[in-house]
Amino acid sequence: MSARKIIIDTDPGQDDAVAILLALGSPDEIEVLGITAVAGNVPLPLTERNARIVCELAGRRDIPVFAGCEAPLKRKLVTAEHVHGKTGLDGPQLPDPTMPLQDTHAVDFIIETLRREAPGTVTLCPIGPLTNIATAFERAPDIVERVEEIVLMGGAYFEVGNITPAAEFNIYVDPEAAEIVFKSGVRLTVMPLDVTHKALTTAPHVAGFRAMGTEVGRMVAEWTDFFERFDKEKYGSAGAPLHDPCVIAYLIAPGMFTGRHVNVEIETTSELTLGMTVADWWGVTDRPRNAMFMGGIDADAYFALITERLARL
Ligand code: BDR
Ligand code: CA
């Protein structure tokens, strides 16, 4: 079977960085056509820069990196330096990237790629706010039916919220964009907090990263050390959720995850619950099912996969 073609749409973020590394360490299963940066965890100049740093760390200066939208569709950008640090990749000392940023805007790259490639052969993997994807869908509605699948990290049902009591960060930052994506009709697989809060970086997992003895292993261990402090304190847990690599792990080993095909609507008006992913987990409405909403993960298999693939880089 040939490798699945994907575009990673991202706001790195330490966990985004691990997701990118997992994809680049898995060339048999995944072909990364490009990485599109969006404003999210930190502003756009930092997210596009961080994406290039991660590609260089993986020895993949050939991966084209594009800068996209610098603000949500209708709102002021909310960032998450309190989790990821000032640069978004706080933790280890990082070199400045030397590979160039592409001239093309990320949204144009998404549109051009979907028009160029055969219909149904490109999967979009958003692991930040959905601004770039929604903008592409609005600007070029013809591309929507050409998308093979969207596999995204965002939302929550049982875990409810992390940036507000009711909302997960990626959806909260740009709820109008999320609404466009969730209503698009594209086959949609969602990795919410319900999954990622079961994928905790406990001590043996971080030791596994460190024991790789490579530059990549050291960086990932140091990133983990950094972002764990916030979540461990907040949740009183033995580690922090490693959110975004769930999207890539799903492409490689979907059997690791369990979930339900349900209706998911995005709250865009209530001040109190803005950005909430209202998932009809119990099937109490007749609203059409639009998303495979995951809820379970084999965390040991997940960390074993990440460790094995990152060791290849
Ligand atoms: C999501 O928000 C970001 O802080 C992480 O990178 C992840 O994509 C988790 O809510
Ligand atoms: Ca992210």
What does this structure look like?
- It contains twelve helices and ten strands.
- By secondary structure, it is an alpha/beta fold.
- The protein has one domain (4-310): Inosine-uridine Nucleoside N-ribohydrolase, Chain A (Alpha-Beta Complex).
- The strands form two sheets. The chain has an eight-stranded mixed sheet, sandwiched between helices.
- Helix 5 (131-139) links the parallel strand 4 and strand 5 (147-153).
- It starts with a strand and ends with a helix.
- The structure holds beta-D-ribofuranose and calcium ion.
- Beta-D-ribofuranose (BDR) is lined by residues 13, 15-16, 41, 80, 83, 127-128, 153, 162, 168-170, 243-244.
Keywords:
313 residues, alpha/beta, Inosine-uridine Nucleoside N-ribohydrolase, Chain A, 8-stranded mixed sheet, two-stranded antiparallel sheet, 12 helices, globular, binds beta-D-ribofuranose, binds calcium ion
And the CATH topology? Inosine-uridine Nucleoside N-ribohydrolase, Chain A
- The general outline is globular
- For this structure, what is the CATH homologous superfamily? Ribonucleoside hydrolase-like
Strand order of the largest sheet: 3-2-1-4-5-6-10-7
Number of helices: 12
SSE series: EHEHEHHEHEHHEHHHHEEEEH
User: Which architecture per CATH?
Assistant: Alpha-Beta Complex
Supply the number of structural domains.
1
